[in-house]
Amino acid sequence: MTTPAPILIAGPTASGKSAVALGLAERLGGAIVNADAMQVYRELRILTARPGAEDERRAPHRLYGHVPGREAYSAARYAGEARAAIEAAEASGRVPIVVGGTGLYFKALTHGLSPIPPVPEEIRARWRSRASAEGAPVLHAVLRERDPEMAARLRPSDPQRLVRALEVLEATGVSLARWQETPGEPVIRSAEGRAFVVARERQDVRQRCDARFEAMMAAGAVDEVRALLELGLDPALPVMRALGVGPLAAAIEGRLTLAEATDKAKAETRQYVKRQVTWLSRNMMSWKWLYEQEEERFLARIIDFIKSKP
Fold it and tell me: If pLDDT is split at 50, 70 and 90, which confidence band does 310 have?
């Protein structure tokens, strides 16, 4: 029996890629593997638009909601778990369909990750604590002094990547920039002809982002954030920086009105989508970009494209 080759579907937030992946899974006998850095977290189903129970009944879903928010999930851990999920799908005769909007996760699958040694937990905790207490701009200044090359690559407002650069530098004595020059081992050897970007026109995505957040609010996003805050997690943890968490937390704590928080969350989402599209356009130009309005058109074009390849 021929091993079913993986299909990769990337796209910005609110592009409809998850619905496309589900449709493909039903038509092709597939298993869906998550490639979204926030949908791994257990506590955030609503705000991350994680597939619901009905979606999970329609097709197998892997690597969704399996990580507690108190943990900082990494691309390295993702690569190992995704490899296992893809191999399990293939062994069962299902087509692995990897879908998400986290470019680094797709890069880990198709290019591999640099073999960076593990960072001791005490070092990681110390830099996370500093990020929480002092803020990302201060960490960027520290990095600029110690490792100007890496600092030039990172935004002063990106605490997660700043912490990573500083912890690797402290633990290994070598810049993350140098480690990144060493090629890794890809999980998927070739995705030629089976890698797609689900895209939409900018105004369409903006409207979908706004509508989706309104739906999240109606579904209980405020209560979800309230429950998250009650856990007392480190603010520097990735789960605390999921889209919508900050503004809704501010509303719960009385620093913003709910209307102000909603507007701010929508604006942050649109800004994030813009960064996603920029990254995808720079790093996935060899993938097949599809621009459609309806899910069925996306599905038809992907299936036709796959069938046309040897």
Answer: low
